[in-house]
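Changelog-adjacent note: as of this version, every example in the card shows the full chain rather than a window. The one below runs 534 residues end to end.
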Amino acid sequence: MPVDTIFVVVRRMRDGLIFAVLCVGLLSSGQSWAVESESIRNFTEELGTEAAPFEKNQGLLSPEDVRAFYRRNKHQAIWNTIVRGSEGYRQLLHAIENSGSHGFNVNSYHLKTLSDPQTSEFAKEILATDAFLAQARHRRIGAVSPQTLDPDWHLKLGEINSVAILERAVADGNIAERLEALWPKSHEYKALVAKRAELLAAPSVVSIAVPPGAILKPGQSDQRIAVLKARLFGAGDYSPVYDDELLAAVKAFQFSAGLEDDGVVGPATLEWLNAVQFSWVDRIDANLERWRWLPDEIPETHLRINIAAFQLRAIKKGEDSLTMKVIVGKLYRRTPVFMETMKYLVYNPYWNVPYSIATKDKLPLLKKDAAALEAQGYEVRPALSERFVGVSSVDWNPITPRQFNYLLRQKPGPRNALGQIKFMLPNQFSVYLHDTPDHSLFKKQERGFSSGCVRLSDPLRLAEWVLQNDGQGVTLDTLRKQIGSGDTQTVYLKSPLPVLIVYFTAFTNGRDEVIFRRDLYQRDGAIVEELRKE
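Full-length structure tokens:
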């Protein structure tokens, strides 16, 4: 029986990526076909050219890598000879199936076609190679592009030569081992995978959802309150009154979910109350993908700030040695995800107000009552001037944002927005860590209140940790004396300290228990949607 013709077409998608398409030739069950190198050459060299459309097709995920692999290996078939003889083909199918436990859509990697005995040997050859190359790349640097999904993600992706990895796998016959070694090695990543399996293995619990509506508060009477009680206490007949027993239960639930435990049931609390088994799996999948986006090497000693957890961890030799609460950017002034090194600290700092904040936030206040801002320590330097003057000496009424040719700053003091100390990691986003004169906001469970920088709940403890880690041997008493002098002082680190700012809505604590937090910046959904696509 003759083999159906194999066609290739290359289409340019909306994002500019090349998408090659293979028309799968089918054989009747039981027939075989020795894949010749000339057939592979003719097919792979057509990748990147235009051809006529067709009816039956199968997309290639890594057309350029497929072509590169066969070129480097003289267009020799591998899956029905070298690798398939060592059960490498079965190992590949098993590896693709297993990738589903890491949040991958296995149907994206030709699993159905590769498992179908009716699929031609030629199609299996090409698609198996494509599947391996794609799996290798996606396990190491992610299945979706962070730059296209999250404009605030600025970490450099790791590097991978998937063609070389396949060559080594062919040489030693260890298809499964080569692929398995590409997953992130962090114990935190492994804990998320284990939690995902636990959630899927748990019996499905059907529970009535609390309907959306007005905010529910203590003392109110509403039929939705009876549903809320059933959600928290279990099935039963309940009064529609928001009583003290319900208040205690709501507060406990909010605290455990990382929400503000005020007993007020608004949209954020409802989101968590109505979450079901698969919404937790989705959240884990989004965060597994984020782990794959992280750089290959993260220093054993570094500071890690999780925006979604509102937490800083000082990690030394892979172990947490200090943690503290932080305040991060508001929804419309989000703290970006990036990695930089801390180079110096400043005691009793000036605050040079960024232009965007000066024009959007401070200019209206200057027009309303410049004297009040001057009393808070604000001063200004006009363009072409070398001298700062009090802000009340300028007539701000005719000034527009476009005409704002001033450098606005706040002098050191008890009301300075940066508090007593700032930690500088020079970066394009003008984001740094600092103290704050108002520590009351740290009592809140969700702390998205800043303009992008990271405010610290215990900056002196962090300064002590940073300087001792740097070998400078500074104590808290010494720090208090130096800062108490009121003098502005810059302290340079002998060895710049890596600082990693990330965004994880599912993460582990020190005991590898998985903690979930609300998606403050609404970033999870886009990742999950892309992961689920075929």
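Structural remarks: The domain at 298-523 is CATH 2.40.440.10 (L,D-transpeptidase catalytic domain-like).
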